[in-house]
Amino acid sequence: MTSLNNDVVEGLRTALRGPLLRPGDPDYDGARQIWNAMIDRHPALIHRCAGTADVCTAVAFARDHGVPLAVRGGGHNIAGNAVCDDGFVIDLSAMRRVHVDPDARLAWVDGGALLGDVDHETQAYGLAVPLGINSTTGVAGLTLGGGFGWLSRMLGLAVDNLVGADIVTADARRRHIGPRAEPDLFWAIRGGGGNFGVVTRFEFALHAVGPAVTAGLIVFSAAEGRDVLRRYRDYVDTLPYDVSIWAVLRKAPPLPFLPADVHGHDIVALAVFSPRPPDEALPAIAPVRAFGTVLGEHVGAVPYAAWQQTFDPLLAPGARNYWKSHNFATLSDDAIDVVLRYAGSVPSPQCEIFLGLIGGRANEPAVDATAYPHRNVTYAMNVHGRWSDAADDARCVAWAREFFAAVAPYAAGSVYVNFLTQDEETRIHEAYGPNWDRLVQVKQRYDPDNLFRFNHNIPPAG
Ligand SMILES: Cc1cc2nc3c(=O)[nH]c(=O)nc-3n(C[C@H](O)[C@H](O)[C@H](O)COP(=O)(O)OP(=O)(O)OC[C@H]3O[C@@H](n4cnc5c(N)ncnc54)[C@H](O)[C@@H]3O)c2cc1C
Q: Which stretches make up the FAD-binding PCMH-type domain (predicted)?
């Protein structure tokens, strides 16, 4: 980048409608920051695209000048692929429009939209797309990797509800793709991440959800964790698709429904969710209370869009984060013991271990129906190492890595691509699984020079 002369960069600026930021510009530092404060990169150029024309111009510029190119959606990715040092960042954060057609039950979502943008517009009609569990996450990165959340057991993954997309490929052409338009490319973006181009617009199928759903937390002491988690595991095998229960092991936050003497102590929190109203959902949730001694609970009717924001404060941007993740087909007794052992030795009060329950309809498609391959997974387990002070980096990273290694013998041997950290290049095959070869072929066809390589990269076949 340093070899690009000023005239070339100024020429680019005049061709763009959105701002082009360089080091020293007032907005530059804010624009290079992403969710994970462990990532501190200094791009040479950041372009906040105003629309698809800007994206095409920026992609052509990067290609023609051989400039390293990163693409930013919501900026949530733990590995920090949204930004690069000394390269060019195509930043879609100004492209967040969501358009809903309630009669056709379709939503068109711009490539920089956040989950909260989609929930806000779709819930106005009592409709929803199955996305993730934090309203501040980017729709783009989440969907391109698979995308699961509270609705996935009933409605499948985000990729299972994607019916079309507009994408700018490495030749700087905008293409509309779908099941009948460039189907290989459409297949590849449903799990193959940002490897194939810049998605400027997603087209999702919508489903009736809410506005009120049934959701909340039931909290147990970690001292009873072994029984609670074994009963949880046995119970979720019998759960209907329209109920989801995730387990979170952490220090108790000062939640108002928990007694003060529980705050700061080790808990197992079961987060329960159903899109049904309480009279229909509570019978399936009630047995959870018998898993152990309930320290506190807060479960009832809640607006879906509000529930989607419930965990935002615990996962706000600005902290240092290091994750390790495994998929599990089942949770053995031994695995539960390892989970409890490490949950009892978290190196910072912000760390947590969570078990996201998937299964249900998310496991019905064939492994090769979309590029996302993990259709046999019951739990995605994520070790959230999270802390504030850089002086704690080594200690916190070591805890996450040790736990990851200790529990590995009980895991499925696969991982969700969106939970990979920047130092896990060796796990990329685990993430794309049996769909690897076809992804490589599609990459060769649409991005033979690997222009889009700041991602969990699929190198072109050539
Ligand atoms: C707090 C938190 C909660 C999360 N919860 C969930 C969850 O419930 N379910 C779940 O499935 N995942 C979850 N994730 C993981 C999430 O799916 C990934 O972090 C995802 O990559 C975020 O997408 P983004 O657009 O915000 O990220 P970014 O960092 O902006 O981008 C991620 C990757 O996608 C590429 N990319 C971004 N936008 C585009 C685009 N428009 N076109 C092409 N490529 C693009 C980037 O180049 C990068 O490689 C969570 C992450 C966090 C931090």
A: 39-209
